[in-house]
Amino acid sequence: xxxxxxxxxxxxxxxxxxxxxxxxxxxxxxxxxxxxxxxxxxxxxxxxxxxxxxxxxxxxxxxxxxxxxxxxxxxxxxxxxxxxxxxxxxxxxxxxxxxxxxxxxxxxxxxxxxxxxxxxxxxxxxxxxxxxxxxxxxxxxxxxxxxxxxxxxxxxxxxxxxxxxxxxxxxxxxxxxxxxxxxxxxxxxxxxxxxxxxxxxxxxxxxxxxxxxxxxxxxxxxxxxxxxxxxxxxxxxxxxxxxxxxxxxxxxxxxxxxxxxxxxxxxxxxxxxxxxxxxxxxxxxxxxxxxxxxxxxxxxxxxxxxxxxxxxxxxxxxxxxxxxxxxxxxxxxxxxxxxxxxxxxxxxxxxxxxxxxxxxxxxxxxxxxxxxxxxxxxxxxxxxxxxxxxxxxxxxxxxxxxxxxxxxxxxxxxxxxxxxxxxxxxxxxxxxxxxxxxxxxxxxxxxxxxxxxxxxx
Length: 457
Prior knowledge:
InterPro entries: AmpC-like, Beta-lactam-related, Beta-lactam/transpept-like, DUF7586. Residues 353-436 form the DUF7586 domain. This is CubicO group peptidase, beta-lactamase class C family. By secondary structure, the protein is an alpha+beta fold. Helix 2 (67-81) crosses helix 6. A hairpin with a 6-residue loop joins strand 4 (203-205) and strand 5. The N and C termini lie far apart (61 Å). The chain has an 8-stranded antiparallel beta barrel. It has a 7-stranded antiparallel beta sheet with strand order 2-1-11-10-9-8-7, with helices on both faces. A two-stranded antiparallel sheet has the order 3-6. It has helices spanning 10-27, 67-81, 105-110, 135-139, 156-170, 174-183, 233-245, 253-259, 325-339, 355-360, and strands at 31-38, 41-49, 62-63, 203-205, 212-214, 230-231, 273-275, 280-284, 287-296, 299-306, 311-317, 362-366, 369-375, 381-385, 392-396, 402-404, 413-418, 424-429, 432-435. It has 2 domains: 29-339, Beta-lactamase, CATH 3.40.710; 355-435, Beta Barrel (Lipocalin). The radius of gyration is 25 Å and the shape is globular.
């Protein structure tokens, strides 16, 4: 668990309450509950409105809809990290017998498999899962509406397939796998497949009158991996902390970072939104947010995180339409980020460093462009342009090489090359040659180096 964070300033807390209250009133939601996470812990949890005559709190369950998909993605990526499957594998390799067997697992996670958005038949969110007892009932006879890989097309049935995949590979109900592998390690004791008291009732609000209509809360059966879960503000705050920092008991931080990376193309008019692996992405006022929105009849929910700010925000309400939980959660996060910007941790020297890594540290040049290579506390390397901008983190491969894990060089190998004396001569990163001097003539610079050398004109 992270150290106890600094409490929010009173003015910040009041601003959060004001935004929560105005959101509840404008959205005409019977109740709204929200939380803000900073440095791995909740620093604010509050509710507005009422459930059974009382203000909602962090222990009250709401249905979280498609945030369920992010949990499902965690389960699939655990299997990938264990070597049980690869994201490039066709579904049929692990779950035979469906009409979508050619879809890859990664495409299902990113909604790029081109599958239908909804199930055939009556709207699955308001009808019992017993109406769709088999995967064939979820998909229909021809679920392909777009060529695979060409565009992002959100598919709820696609995540039903991922739930069946987890169940097949683990040999156990996916809900039980989720409880054992994710919920228990993260201490999310109030996140369940079916509601457990105390929980909110889901309502529709009449568009032209302030009256309510109860919404059905059905067990969606095979479609449950797309939106079945119930949770609380306190539990989702723990999940938000996980989506920022990861947790080695569940997923390594690098895998969580992969979830937050774009994995599908945006629409030409929507460059500010995207989708990773089970996570929605949003660029808002220069801040990159990742998480997921969710809705089911009678409920809306959102969790957003900003790893750069070490902040997360959660919003849940019990209304079908009207409350923009996504915008409200983003506003709450932005309120804290702007009023109380993150204070960096103190600089500290590395606890230890491999002398060979120390020899690699410092300036390198790709042609005339200066870069700097730095050993990291976790044993990784970072190569970044000296002019600023995002660098590439590289992890050791165990055979003397390094592999990029983000940015342009993700998946590319860095090989340290030596001269006949055994001294390091240059670095080869995916054919990019980095030298200790700009265009060093004694290294194999592609195309060679003009023997006239650097000249004044």
